[in-house]
Amino acid sequence: MGQRPPIILWLRRDLRLADHPAMVAAIATGQPVIPLFIHDEVVEVLGAAAKFRLGLSLENISTQLRDLGAALILRRGRAHDVLRSVVAETGATGVFWSRLYDTASKVRDTEVKAALRKEGVKADSHPGHVLFEPWTVSTKTGGFYKVYTPFWNTVKQKEVGVCLPAPKRWPAPANWPKSATLSNWKMDAEMNRGAAAVAKHQRVGERAAQDRLRNFIEIAVDGYKKYRDFPGLRSTSGLSENLTYGEISPRMVWHAGARALNEGHLGAEHFLKELVWREFSYHLIHHTPWIETECWRRVWESFPWRGDTELAEAWRRGRTGIPFVDAAMREMYVTGTMHNRARMIVGSYLTKHLLTDWRIGQAWFADCLTDWDPAANAMGWQWVAGCGPDATPYFRVFNPVTQADKFDADQSYQRRWIAEGYTKPSRTALSYFKAVPRSWALSEDIAYPDPIVSASDGRGVALVAYSAWKEGH
Ligand code: FAD
């Protein structure tokens, strides 16, 4: 008897084996399963660092699958075109995938699902990228949440399902379809000089993610609430990098936090709350998709934001003359990540001190972050700019100097990332100059700039602009 026709498991941001509902469902059909990744229209437009980091993740999952006797098939092209040809080549009867919620993915997936079904192919989407499907959490009146705290109060009472085990054996087809070669895709091509520097800071793949979670729960969770705002300390989990590519499931992170809380580690409650901010961002991106591109409170579209000026360029290059801001921008350029407190400070400085459109910051983060996430990034930017749901009011301007005094009093963070002016600059600070494009012509020997807008002047400028705008509304 010939082998049964295969199922295609279309992998996207779910590059793991454990707790993978779509994978489990595909294997449960009893048919052979072909894991497929498509360098499609959504991947094509990713920022430089996100694309580079995705490449590392693909390399890792490909090895994991190989160890199980499976091959990760790589193809490039429009998602539907590729799926249609792999179905034709293999005789696959179904395509399974894990759901995503950003607009580009939703548009693609809706089109693919309808087209496949029309062609007589089973098209099944599964949960796994978030804890709670965005449409399963609603207010008492049946609407969606616009404010975080009531959202948290609702979801904390919801049941989170148990994690599914990783497959022990892979149902391989008799013949594997042909695959592109990952190295030929050159997913690091847009990284300028930075790829080698940034690579050192990545902890890629499922095992790294699980180790990270275990270490965090064992060592740092108790101090999380107290120390999580100090960028000079390593007091947070660092899991955003892994969650964004689905190298670990949010459910696995949730259960580890919940177990720690049950065992009396009270810091774990705060950790769960932060994980739920990620959920909230997905709730919002699903229900109010314009959050990605337009001011969530639309009235803010008329705010006289500045466009892309030399001020924004100084901000991007870590040359504002405000050490906390510059340290953070350099940290992001070299490591692909930035501490959450620092994200708030640089976001506030750009949108308030420099009166610059939040979308300019959002785009730069999308290009530089290896933990770039469409939902968390959009929500974070709208939060700092004051135009989002449950946002910090515009008139609440973070002062980057007093913030540094409070959260980096010993200046360990600033010293880690600023080289200029120090007789013995740190290795990390110097690494910035190796990572940035040559065209920026930066070196540690060029004097550190004076503030382009000082911490105190900026507040006044922002408040005047805000009052003038407010009067017109
Ligand atoms: P931990 O403190 O260990 O928290 C655990 C997990 O909870 C995180 O991994 C993350 O998944 C989630 N989480 C924590 N804080 C937030 C938050 N404020 N919003 C949403 N989820 C949260 N996060 C991203 O993952 N990708 C982004 O592109 C991104 N862009 C941001 C842009 C701005 C302007 C701001 C203010 C925040 C942004 N964040 C983003 C949220 C946050 O800064 C990061 O999730 C956090 O710094 C990740 O570090 P960690 O994994 O050590 O977090």
UniProtKB/TrEMBL annotation:
> What domain of life is recorded for the organism?
Bacteria
Q: Which cofactor does it need?
A: (6R)-5,10-methylene-5,6,7,8-tetrahydrofolate; FAD
Which enzyme type, at the first EC level?
A: lyase
Question: Hydrolase as a keyword?
Answer: no
Q: Which UniProt keywords apply?
A: Chromophore, FAD, Flavoprotein, Lyase
SUPFAM superfamilies, per database record: Cryptochrome/photolyase FAD-binding domain, Cryptochrome/photolyase, N-terminal domain
What Enzyme Commission number(s) apply to this enzyme? 4.1.99.3
Q: Name one Pfam family in it.
A: DNA_photolyase
GO molecular function: any one?
A: deoxyribodipyrimidine photo-lyase activity
Q: Which InterPro entries match?
A: Crypto/Photolyase_FAD-like_sf, Crypto/Photolyase_N_sf, Cryptochr/Photolyase_FAD-bd, Cryptochrome/DNA_photolyase_1, DNA_photolyase_N, Rossmann-like_a/b/a_fold
What sections of the protein cross the membrane?
A: none
Q: Where is the Photolyase/cryptochrome alpha/beta domain?
A: 5-131
Q: Which family does it belong to?
A: Belongs to the DNA photolyase family.
Q: What is this protein called?
A: Cryptochrome/photolyase family protein
Q: Which organism is it from?
A: Pseudohalocynthiibacter aestuariivivens
